[in-house]
From TrEMBL:
PROSITE patterns: T2SP_F
Alphabetized Gene3D superfamilies for the sequence: Type II secretion system (T2SS), domain F
Protein's name in the database: General secretion pathway protein F
GO cellular component assignments: plasma membrane; type II protein secretion system complex
């Protein structure tokens, strides 16, 4: 059976859309008529995706996801993936067969795209494919780490428990990512408001006040002349300055597409105070948590290291982790390889050594990931605690300079009277 997307008219004359399973379009139309629906269009999910993305994009997808096809392919977001994983874990642990678990999860999905993906996976399972193989047809929704853990769970016979661990991992990563975003929202809003206020003063307020001083033939104070020059620059060329800034940002992002330039930029970030600490804590906690989950699920260490390398956001750390994998493949100890890399925190190295010595590597890595996440949260709080007052002081100082530049000529005029 395959998943079909349909558009139909119900008894009230309202157009509805949905996803339904069937052996053929003819059978699906018969099912819809049996539900008192008048089908307008019925198509398989795969055909509908191809129609949306076009033949060239579909070919790019088949070649490994190149082109623009990936932009329009239905996929699960992080929240949906965590929810589906949690639902499947609960249903499987309650004794429900895999195909029925997938069908139940599809019925509970709110978005048609999620229903389509789950029913497509169920169809593959009914055809005799493993769940990991079915997931591999949706790489945008289920990445390599996810599929490797599912494959390990299927091999060991503990798929339900593995999916539960996966759900907890996804939810924990989502929580950490949301923490990072929330920590940045207030400083960015404060910085934007500060720049906007100063810009409005310089472009709209200062020119009107300065006209009064320019009618006087006396030489204006240096600070006032500087304020007038900056105000004229922003009033006459402000649009060009914004254009140059936007072009610089776009050009910088284009330059970072080159692997060597991107690696150089990431290496530079690892030398910037405070930024370095946040990057190392975020990536090391993600690395330790992923490696712990994979090892606990029964994935071989070398394969687990290769997968955990992909979750690192910094290219310099990715290359260091690749070196670690090579050393382990040659027979070296993981803790020694991490120490030789030079980037990983001492806590991660020490707990890895302890885990290798007593056979509890997965537990030690999990404790390390939890500790690093807690330390990351404290570091973000401290960094933002420094950054926010700095922005306030900068804004206050800018406004104070503007006021001084305006008031100095007034004081001089009063002294002349």
């Amino acid at each position: 059976m395959a998943a079909f997307s349909y558009t139909a008219i119900n008894s009230s004359g309202k157009t509805i859309k949905g996803v339904i399973e069937g052996d053929s379009e003819r059978q699906v139309r018969a099912q819809l008529r049996g539900q008192q629906l008048k089908p307008l269009s019925v198509s398989t999910s795969a055909r509908e995706a191809k129609a949306k993305i076009g033949p060239k994009a579909a070919k790019g997808k088949a070649d490994g996801g190149a082109g623009f096809g990936g932009l329009f392919t239905p996929k699960l977001n992080t929240k949906e993936r965590a929810l589906v994983t949690r639902q499947l874990a609960s249903l499987l642990q309650s004794g429900l067969p895999l195909d029925e678990s997938l069908n139940t999860a599809a019925k509970q999905a709110l978005r048609p795209a999620v229903q389509s993906i789950l029913l497509s996976i169920r169809s593959r399972v009914l055809e005799g494919h493993s769940l990991a193989q079915a997931f591999s047809e949706h790489p945008k929704s289920f990445d390599t780490m996810y599929r490797s853990m599912v494959r390990a769970g299927e091999s060991s016979g503990y798929l339900g428990q593995v999916l539960e661990q996966l759900a907890e991992y996804i939810e924990r990563n989502q929580y950490t990512a949301n923490k990072l975003k929330m920590a940045m929202i207030y400083p960015m809003v404060l910085l934007t408001v500060s720049v906007s206020v100063v810009g409005i003063l310089m472009v709209f307020v200062v020119p009107d006040l300065v006209e009064v001083f320019q009618q006087n033939e006396r030489t204006l104070p240096l600070l006032t002349r500087g304020l007038i020059a900056v105000s004229d620059l922003l009033s006459n060329w402000g649009w060009l300055i914004l254009l140059v800034i936007a072009a610089s940002v776009v050009g910088f992002q284009y330059l970072l597409r080159h692997p060597n330039r991107r690696r150089g930029w990431h290496r530079f970030l690892l030398r910037v105070p405070m930024v370095k600490d946040v990057i190392l804590l975020a990536d090391s906690s993600r690395f330790a948590g992923t490696l712990s989950l994979l090892v606990e699920s029964g994935v071989p260490l070398l394969q687990a290291l290769r997968i955990a390398t992909q979750v690192l956001g910094n290219n310099e750390l990715q290359n260091a982790c690749s070196d670690v994998t090579r050393v382990v493949q040659e027979g070296g100890a993981l803790n020694k390889a991490l120490r030789q890399a030079g980037w990983f925190p001492p806590l991660l190295v020490q707990m890895t050594a302890s885990g290798e010595a007593n056979g509890t590597l997965d537990k030690q890595l999990k404790h390390c990931a939890t500790n690093q996440e807690r330390e990351l949260e404290m570091k973000l709080t401290t960094t933002m605690g420094i950054f926010e007052p700095a922005i306030v002081v900068l804004m206050g100082g800018s406004i104070a300079l503007i006021m001084m530049a305006i008031l100095l000529p007034i004081f001089e005029m009063n002294q002349m009277v």
